[in-house]
Amino acid sequence: MSVAAYCIFCYRQIGTIGTPGPATKTHLPWHDIKHFSTFDGEDHECALWLLLKRTQSEDKEVRLQAVQDLANNSHWHGYQYGTVAQTCDQRTAIGLARSKGINLRFFLPPPPLPKVKNDYTIEDELRLLLVSLPQTYLDPCVQHFTSLALRESSQILAAQRGGLWCFGGNGLPYCETLSKIPSETVELFCLQALVQHSKVSSHCDKIEAKGGLQLLQRIYQLRKDSAKIQRNIIRIIGNMALDERLHASIVRAGWISVLAEVMKSPHVIQSSHAARALANLDRDTVKEKYLDGVYVLHPQYRTSQPIRADILFVHGLLGAAFKTWRQQDIDRRLDKKASEGQEEYSQCWPKTWLASDCPALRVISVEYDTDLSDWKAKCPVEAHRKSIAYRSNELLDKLRAAGIGDRPLVWVSHSMGGLLVKKMLVDASKNPEMEKIVNNTRGIIFYSVPHHGSQLAEYSMNARYLLFPSVEVKELSKDSPALKELNDDFLSLAKDKKFSVLSFAETLPTHISSMIKLHIVPLESAKLGIGDLIPVDVNHLNICKPKKKDAFLYQHTLKFIQDVLAQELGD
Questions:
Q1: CB within 10 Å: which end of the chain, N or C, has fewer?
Q2: pLDDT for 395-454, tens place per residue?
Q3: 3-state SS of 422-449?
Q4: Tell me, what's the pLDDT at 3?
Q5: Which residues contact residue 485 at a Cβ distance below 8 angstroms, ignoring those fewer than 6 apart?
Q6: Pairing verdict, β 409-414 and 309-314
Q7: How many whole angstroms separate alpha carbon 522 and alpha carbon 34?
Q8: Strand, coil or helix: what is 107?
Q9: In what order do the strands lie in the sheet with 361-366?
């Protein structure tokens, strides 16, 4: 019998896969397929087809094991990777992309893209896409500036060139002739507007219907030199992946191979954006949905390791989901002794150190925009959206969608992020739909949180000509009635629920500009009133950035997490 005939025979023998009853398992001698390296040619060929058939089983356990076996076997021949790429279904391709160490030969490259219309640039195509999208249900400020851009771009398209392109830069809105603006800048602005559109489900439908997935693929391939452009594109794909109806379109546009490749990136921001997009696509093993700004740092791949508890990181003013939690920067030229024999620098210690020390934890970091100053205020309707109260409601909804509250939980916060954590817990305690978040909270870590206000707010108020304080900074005013009320409400809740609390306080001033040096959160403001308070000889920015893995700051944080989750983590 030929190899092909033998494989067909094997394939037919498992035709009952997926039907209920004992026949499903008795027809499959899978104990013979565990050791692929010992197979001869025919057996090895048949094993591939058997696994492919098994990936389509109606039995979830069977198909997940088949995907794992496909991914873990390092003895496939080159043409067999191609066979899998061309024959596996959408669900299997996504599962393979979320398998650690996956061989990228399992995936087909993105399909050839249609040519751009004559005389049309990528910027033209992007503006056409923006023009076609609804202007409703958007963040008011994005709507404001997108409408300015579209008004001008409509004239540009009509005239084939010329007119003005208006957009919000780092300062106030400004206009330049199109020829003076680099195409990458225009593309980035359009993509940032598309990010906002992609947060609205009905707008995602329009993006897909107008060929947006293919256009984004073209830009992604052309802009491999721009991490920021690629990151915004993957962020859009991650948002669109929240809608299961769009999964087939995302797969057809070639995004699985792209995301699988980016997952291997050494840059934590890039890989985490791809991990979020693939998790939202993987409905076979992921029940949670990760909305915009919610990132899983661990586990980013499929795993058989049971997840026992969640750790949630919340940054503060001018922070971010990744950079806030990096290892403290060391000038290796000045500190040769510190750099000798040092472990690899961690771009995000919760993703590297904490995940390694506590693999049974799911580690999540959230991101939201903050400003020190309204000097660069983008539009008059933005202010109310940046209050702690507004952000609390917004983030609580996102966290529940991500399954926060379903497991025991520890919060880790820096600066204003700690006030936001307190507000979320107080708000959740008053909402029956959010009560699980409160009831499953085991502990909270505060890194230099201004429970009683910050000198940053006082300075900003007294120097308006230099720094127009933002909504966030105004809310940090020393002895603010709102801060006192929040602290009183939180203390009452924490004592009632017996939350474990650990606080760290900075003792060194922070340079916030070449001329300004402030002790942003004094010891008395970092004192919550419950739990331990530990002063550390670092400034406000470095209070959450340990120098190395065996440093006191990280080891004490780790011990607190292990202690409050001792029951869940066991030994």
A1: C
A2: 999 999 999 999 999 999 999 899 999 999 999 999 999 999 999 999 999 999 999 887
A3: HHHHHHHHCCCCCHHHHHCEEEEEEECC
A4: 46
A5: none
A6: parallel
A7: 61
A8: coil
A9: 294-298, 361-366, 309-314, 409-414, 441-447, 500-506, 532-536
Are 321 and 276 in contact by the 8 Å Cβ rule? The answer is no
Structure tokens at 14: 């498992």
Band (474; pLDDT cuts 50, 70, 90): low
CA–CA gap between residue 534 and residue 230 (Å, rounded): 41
Q: Using CA atoms, how far apart are residues 50 and 290, in angstroms rounded to an integer?
A: 34
**DSSP strand pairing (510-511 vs 517-518):** antiparallel
More confident call, 245 vs 130: 245
CA angle, residues 304, 306, 308, in degrees to nearest 5: 160
DSSP string of 227-263, one letter each residue = HHHHHHHHHHHHHHTTSGGGHHHHHHTTHHHHHHHHT
pLDDT score for 138: 72
- Residue 257: which pLDDT band, with cuts at 50, 70 and 90? very high
b/e sequence 208-228, b meaning 16+ C-beta within 10 Å: bebbbbbbbbbbbeebeebee
The neighbour count for residue 94, using CB atoms within 10 Å, is 27
- pLDDT number for residue 65: 96
Residue 43 neighbours by CB distance under 10 Å: 16
Whether the predicted pLDDT of 203 surpasses 80? yes
Six-digit token pair at 69? 């076996």
CA pair distance 56, 60, nearest whole angstrom: 9
- The answer, yes or no, to whether residue 543 has pLDDT greater than 50, is yes
**Which of 286, 272, 303 lies closest to 101, judged by CA?**
303
Secondary structure of 144-195 in the HEC alphabet?
Answer: HHHHHHHHHHHHHHHHCCCCEEEECCCCCCEEEEHHHCCHHHHHHHHHHHHH
The pLDDT assigned to 423 comes to 95
- Please state at what angle helix 41-54 crosses helix 60-72, rounded to 10 degrees: 140
Distance CA 218, CA 113 (A): 7
Q: Is 456 left (phi over 0), alpha (psi -120 to 50) or beta?
A: alpha
Structure tokens given for 474: 């105004």
Distance, CA of 548 to CA of 545 (rounded, Å):
9
Cβ atoms of 188 and 227 within 8 Å: the answer is no
Tokens at 191, concatenated: 């993509």
Tracing tokens 């497991």 back to the chain, one arrives at: 407
